Amino acid sequence: MTTRIFGSGIKRREDPRLITGQTRYTDDFQLPGMVYMVVVRSPHAHARITSIDISAAKASPGVVAVFTGQDVPLPGVPCAWLVPGSDLKTPAHPVLAKDTVRYVGDGVAIVIATNRYLAQDAADLVQVSYDVLPAVVNPEDATKDGAPLVHDDVPNNIAFRWVASSGDEGVDNAFNEAAASGVVVQERIVQQRLLPTAMEPRSAVAQWDQFAEELTVYSTSQNPHIARFILSALTGVPEHKLRVIAPEVGGGFGSKIPVYPDEALTAWASMKLGVPVKWTETRSENYQVTIHGRDHIEYVEMAATNEGKITGIRGKVYAGMGAYLSTAAPGIPTILHGLMYSGAYTIPNIRCESIGVMTNTAPVDAYRGAGRPEATFLVERLVDRLAAKLNMDPVELRRKNLIPPFENGHNVAIGLTYDSGNYEGALNKLLSIVDYDGFRREQAAARQQGRLLGIGVTTYSEICGLGPSQVAGAVGFQGGLWESAIVRVSPAGKVQAMIGASPHGQGEETTFAQIISDELGFPVEDIEIVHGDTDRTPMGWGSYGSRTTPVSGAALVLAARKVKEKARAMAAHLLEASVDDIDYADGKFMVRGSPDKFKTIQDATLMATLAWNLPAGMDPGMEASQFYDPPNFAYPFGAHAAIVEIDPETGTVALQRYVAVDDCGPQINPMIVEGQIHGGIVQGVGQALCEGVVYDENGQLLTGTMMDYAMPRADMFPTFELDSTVTPSPHHPIGVKGIGETGTIASTPTIYNAVMDALRPLGIEQIEMPLTAPRVWKAIQDARAKGGA
Amino acid sequence: MRPPSFSYQRLSSVAEAVQMLSSTDNAKVLAGGHSLIPALNQRLSQPGTIIDIGRLNELNGVSVTGSSKLMIGALTPHAVVAASNNVRRYCSALATACGQVGDPQVRNWGTLGGNLAHADPASDPPTVVLAAGGKLHTMGPNGERMIDAADFFQGLFTTALQPDEILTAVEIPIVADRKSAYAKLAHPASRYAVVGVAVFLNTENGSCTNASVAVGGATAKPTRSAAAEQALVGTALEDAALDAAAAALTNEIQGDAVGDIYAPSEYRAAMAGAMLKKAVRAAMV
Amino acid sequence: MKVTVTVNGKRYERDIDPRMLLVHFLREELGLTGTNIGCDTSQCGACTVHLDGKSLKSCTCLAAQADGREVTTIEGLAQGDQLHPMQQAFWEKHGLQCGYCTPGMIMATTAFLKTNPHPTEEEIRHALEGNMCRCTGYQNIVAAVKTASERM
User: pTM of the full predicted structure?
Assistant: First the structure.
């Protein structure tokens, strides 16, 4: 009996190269003859370009070339999520602005020089004259008559208007009834803009081989195959002559999904100049031009009976899109947001209207959780508001409305079928770890002393593992969402598994090896997971939306099982037994009843590869390929709690405890699962407590560096208390769900509700995020002025 | 992260550095570099020449002269000031403040003199040096000068230091039985002080006989608060007295308090009072 | 200008532009790309190295300032195949995910343990003030430093 490697928290195989500095991120590549590109960017949020003088820049030392929008013949960067039924406008997104700039950071020229210092010197000498135009930054204001137009062909700046509804009549009735004889709670929620801040800034290195007419692009991408697809369309280099390599990638969180003008320009410049070109953004540039997340202004309300039974939820969302529609942008506040309004609850009537709005700001796209944190926040917020209004305990109110446990499909009113869930199970586990009743007693005593102590509890379900391609098509995603894998066993019995997805920190080189080891019995050391290179891996749609393990992992399992069946057939042939009489355990194929008569998978592989004596109809080799299109999304869930104390004198929020119980089905590597949850929680807490982009009314970015944008730091946090439940996904070959985003999805409302709970004696109901000390302090001052406790 | 072009000179004596500084246009002095290099990286500063005085070891170190003066060389790194037994003993507020500049890496290499000469209004050490009644020693083409901290800090990034002068040392008077503390509310991103308050106190038989209070971060330059000092002197530093002093401080700086996207001026003024109370309590422990 | 810097025990002489930052000197002149760059305002700590044994953000130092001095980078921490206890602890405690902040984290915390060999959890969290991580939520980084401190 061997220890099962599946489910074991083995050390990561990625780490030795990372902890010794012996790996290569994109900017680490130095190619012979390489030159450096710097993008000259607009300092104005909205302006007409009246002239560009590049003569001084061209004469600057070390300069190889300077190009403006007039010189670069590339078509615009496409938007790839064309949400149907929304009257979507897709304004042109040129790689360099030719006549109008639309946000601070919009590119107007590129400078290429022999090193980055010299390139920057020359970039500073590019003289651009602008006629400054009025700008608009607030997505709600931008839709009003008379607001400046970001694009002439997008009236009222409305790029799309999308509605999802369980039935408008039913929704209206639910709210009318609740208004007459039940309760309705409302809130205007500002989901502030966030900066994804992957620690590695974006970078691209392009190398054009003019003899082979082949283009290689090293790129900080979460999805090299999509990058190849789009770069091919932009540069005209056919896909089979275009290789995209995502080497080591230092985090993404959604910001490395899109293809931006910068990567396309780097590729074009290499083709134009015939030398390798490198472009790497600075952090300030990253904050200006790499996508931002969230940016919603929401009007949301919830209807319920006086007994606390939720009867309806509806929302109208102004979703800022920024100056151009980024790759997946329209799908985020619509499909990935509006369809999640049921949360973990039975809600019979649901409606979401999302209005995508162009503003003179950086493009907004998928940031960790992408649409689902916003949905979970508003649902959880409204549940707590409802509890307060009904004077019920918020946990009790949740219990009354949670969807009962289900193992194989549950339809919610908005039209999704959740795969499996046991929300009450997670909640019960959470409450016992927290000692909820004990805390409430402690809180009552603390309130007697004037202390502001609070707890927030969230129960959530999310949607991940994107997703069936048929659904992708139905919702306008301009791609499929399947994955593929090849499992190849070498004659000597080592395994190479090639996947189309592209992990960048999530540890699949380890967990996927554990999957194969579990399926085929090879030791983990003998298994290599190949990813991140379009020339070495089969097509796949990439790593985002917590889909790598649920989708790519499923492809891998099924490919491994094909290998296993071939090996079984080969072993049966060698053992002169019927395939049906062969048992498998721990990498050995045994004749049933005679366990000493066996062939190892290595034996079977060698003989299948030599092919001297194959069973009839068997092809040589030991390799299998598998495409996998999931039949449904995966729906991880859980319950989180936070306890905070607020210093009334300064408004500082101190996080005392954070407890999370999550369910992602069976855990391949619990250590890695916990790591994902840790990071997710901190990003969500960041939104609740410290992070937030600020533009001034002219569209100047005031949080343009790490000096101004507050990233969470180690000293903000206690040690988290994590636990889990295990509810397998019924449709996945090994039952697993994604875990990359749950922490972010659950933690923002958990913290927010904890702070509001702490402030409840003062009668404070709402403070705009982030809940910084000055904002909390102000709310306390105002409440006291109004006569709060 | 792409500094502009400049020429670079490393000098081996203060005299040489002063000579170089007075004979070079558009020159900047580089000590630890932790104020200047970030500015170069953003191209906010574009000096023609950088004069590196970082290795003038005679400017590095803490000493006590007689029993009346604590002398801290301008090139003493923050971490060394923070850990110095003499600083802790005679001016613990300065040890606290230097222990809160930036982060450990910054404190290892950033220098007290560089920090003071840069005069960032949200920096920690200037507030303490002002409250302590410190004096700044400089060397220029016309010789040495000694400038009261009260005269040295003139405004936003502006000091009494002449373009051809180098800050050589900070002198803190040693006052018998004087206690001090520094309390800070840090900006969550930059770690600079949203508000920092330094207090220096003497007490006799439980009553405050002398108080010096300075606030930084809240105003364009570190500022002494006569109102807070008056409110403390003569009291037993009990809660009511601290509340009164805090209110006096808040009231006094209200008109001059600065606001930004993180903290409005109203908050800074109020927090000056809150930090004053915290600092007095810390000093009296 | 000419500079001579000893990096990971090896002496390097190079003719450089005076404005070259130490981090670019390490990465581009010496090809030691283990030291990463994560910001441009001396905040993130990804570029942390040791200069004469003390932690330094190498984006906030001119290569010229390192002339005649000793630098240790992440590449110089292990003794042959023997990982430094901090590296080992980061590995065992899952103190990294994408790995980009990791060299800076390891260099900062190895220097920290020299000044405080047996820190509390709170002291460790405070010592990480100059280093940012977006993946791990710092939880396992703190655990790794604690583990390393118990072994060293």
Answer: 0.97
